[in-house]
Design goal:
Number of helices: 6
Largest sheet: 3 strands, antiparallel
Structural class: alpha+beta
Strand content: 5-15%
Strand order of the largest sheet: 1-4-5
Number of strands: 7
Shape: flat
Amino acid sequence: MRKWSYLLSGVLIGAVVATAGSSFADQVKSLVGEKVAGEYAVKVNGNSLVENAIVVDGKAHVPLRAVTDSLGANLKVDGKTIQIESSNTSSSKQTNTEVKTSSGKYQGWPASKLEERKSELEKFVNDTEKDKENLQKSLEKYNKLREEYSGNKKMLDNLDSETKGTEEVLQEAETNIAKYKTELEEINKAIASLK
């Protein structure tokens, strides 16, 4: 889970380096190779994201794609500019291929944006399901270790703590999978309404 967060954060930092002006790029380039000092859980409108923010050089760097997706905003990198549009402003720039008959969150989205969002969500579901499998394997490992160290109270306390933390992250992953699948259903309906 953390490796994925680091990878996503690295991609985000890379995107910022590739798209920012030279003075800002120099500032961001100075972060390359810096040690990650910690992580923050990220909540958007009360919902936790799977990806964590990382702390580098005393500053938190959030996973921009995950934040914009959770807000229903569109993120686009255009040359040296990162464009973020909320669904309210993007619906005012509709094209001829927009969704006219669907209702809900994706009303007014062009077919190309729906397909793009669908692939992103499918990737999120696959990645989160892989994380979930790894978490379940960790819980199985903790149970085996619990049997092995049944007489060692300190080790059992550590295992209990690890188990609790892993179960919380697993629950969060299951919640996110359900959320992503629900959103995929909405997108599929919106795409079907175009045909």
